[in-house]
Design a protein that fits this description.
The chain is mainly alpha-helical. It contains two helices and two strands; from the N terminus they run H-H-E-E.
């Protein structure tokens, strides 16, 4: 009777499979972390652009108020000119009750704002991202 010895191939095969699965898991986790970091970086960039836009609007309004011909229509003109930028979907300014007092084209004035966040301090900046269909 001849005894057939089985070679121990199972251990190397299982270790290769385990290493491959571990590498796949590592790549998946690192990809997720990188994508999450990129998303946060993009949102931070957009937020800083929005704050810069608000400061520019405020500076333009304050500078214009020093001019003798400045009136409320000048604010509307300033908002419409800034709103013409291809990277800006719309700008609207509303009062404490949510009534839109100035808008850059899309929204009608004197209408109630659909999206009105709760403002807790005078320095608070609130933003929202909205995806529009590609034209």
């Amino acid at each position: 009777m001849q005894i057939i010895r089985h070679k121990k191939l199972y251990l190397p095969a299982f270790s290769i499979i385990a290493v491959v699965l571990l590498l796949i898991l590592l790549v998946a986790v690192l990809t997720y972390r990188t994508l999450d970091h990129q998303r946060k970086t993009a949102l931070t960039f957009l937020h800083s652009q929005g704050v810069t836009l608000l400061h520019a609007l405020e500076a333009g309004a304050l500078t214009g108020m020093l001019m003798p011909m400045w009136n409320e229509d000048s604010v509307e003109t300033l908002i419409n000119e800034i709103g013409m930028n291809k990277n800006i979907a719309y700008i609207y300014i509303y009062d404490q009750s949510g009534i839109v007092i100035h808008a850059s084209g899309i929204l009608e004035e004197e209408t109630r704002s659909v999206w009105r966040p709760e403002i807790k301090t005078a320095q608070q900046v609130v933003a929202r991202l909205r995806t529009f269909p590609v034209r």
